[in-house]
Amino acid sequence: MNNNFLAFDIGATSGRAVLGTINDNKLTIREIYRFPNSMVKVGEKYYWDVYQLFIHISEALKTASTIPVKIDSIGVDTWGVDFGCIAEDGSLLGLPRAYRDPYTRGVPDEVFKSVPHDELYDITGVQIMDFNTIFQIFAQNKSGYAPMKYASEILFMPDLLSYMLTGNKVCEYTVASTSGMINQNTNQFDKRLLDKLGIRTSLFGKIIHPGAFIGMLDKKLADDTGLGEIPVIAVAGHDTASAIAAVPASDENFAYLSSGTWSLLGIETRKPIISDKSLAYNFTNEGGIEETVRFLKNITGMWLLEQCRKIWKANGRDYSYTEMEALAKSNLSFSSKVDPDDVRFANPDNMELEIKAALAESGQTIPGNDGEMVSCIFHSLANKYKDVIGLLNDLAPFDINKLHIIGGGSANSLLNQLTADYTGMPVIAGPIEATAIGNIMMQAKFFGIVRDRWEMRRIISRSFDARIYKPYNK
Questions:
Q1: Backbone dihedral region for residue 23 (phi beyond 0: left; psi -120 to 50: alpha; all else: beta)
Q2: Set 9, 82, 159, 239: catalytic member
Q3: Whole-model pTM?
Q4: Hey, how many other C-beta atoms are within 10 angstroms of the C-beta on 230?
Q5: Model confidence over 258-274: pLDDT tens digits?
């Protein structure tokens, strides 16, 4: 008997609906709908057009209804930290603010006046990034931002979309854990912390964990799309948590790199790692499936390349990712490097010029063509991965003997090989669609088709080929 699950995996630049079918302990996937996503700038503010996302989700549901299979359930995952404000009558108050909106710059230092940095980290274990939800809410309260002022509660992005699908409001743990407001000992919002910062605890609903039932697809939506009333399941709502669930590992002695717009590099642990060292290294402890912890560092990833590609396209040079990889390979000896996490690369008007300016200021050679620029970005990322792996080795409670690269970046054979060379560690690349796969497998767990994450991973390993890259210097 086939079981069919529909995963909505929505990132900062695109979204997709992926149909997953499990039959005879193997998973096959098929993308049935893809759509763009981008920030909307109005004045000096950046937003997410959640209504446009909902329209695309509705169209994907219509497409799914034309496929001659019975779909058992739906799951939604997105990026973290961002949220929508919900009025007392259930209405959405304006569009959700986007994490790249600069309104939170400098806010952490203001928060530290009430809750010192080390105290905040000791409570939450979360890496300090100025767009964390805690800093967004603090900034919105301080400015008197109307949607926050009149909000009855907030819903993180995957929960907001699930609410629009079902009419039921939930607060899923893995995405809530990115907020910087969850106590790592209780796995609940820390009331004392929020009280100190003037943040209403009433904004947050009861936390549920991946694999919980959210509700049935809204009847009108079910009728309009032709899909019928089917369950919407709380998967690991944060896309990285879903992706890590799909790492095809056979034991715990691995590091993972979820490679996309962001690079999330870390390990899966049973308990949070909160120490002076992890604070100094600015690592984060976020929720995973089955009460695991995603101990990781957020690294700016393909964002640099995506933004350069946008500039090149505007100037008539529209490269595919395959073409950009070939350009870099032809210019691989060009190894000038920048720190991808430098704040100057967060959202510059022109990424190409910003990278060149940073290289000039550090006395390095400036790229003379697009291929050298791509090579610079790849060397910069691989070098950053090497540095972070070194820090992880200093903190991990076990020996790390391999690096699994998952997500879209796992298809980049050149960067995978550079990463193996820089880190001196074997790299196992794939699956590419890890986030959607993890989403699908959590739905399967809800129905009892798999018992735990290790059974999920065995099925994934059988179902998708992985490519191994060995370091040349080993």
A1: beta
A2: 239
A3: 0.92
A4: 17
A5: 998 889 999 999 999 99
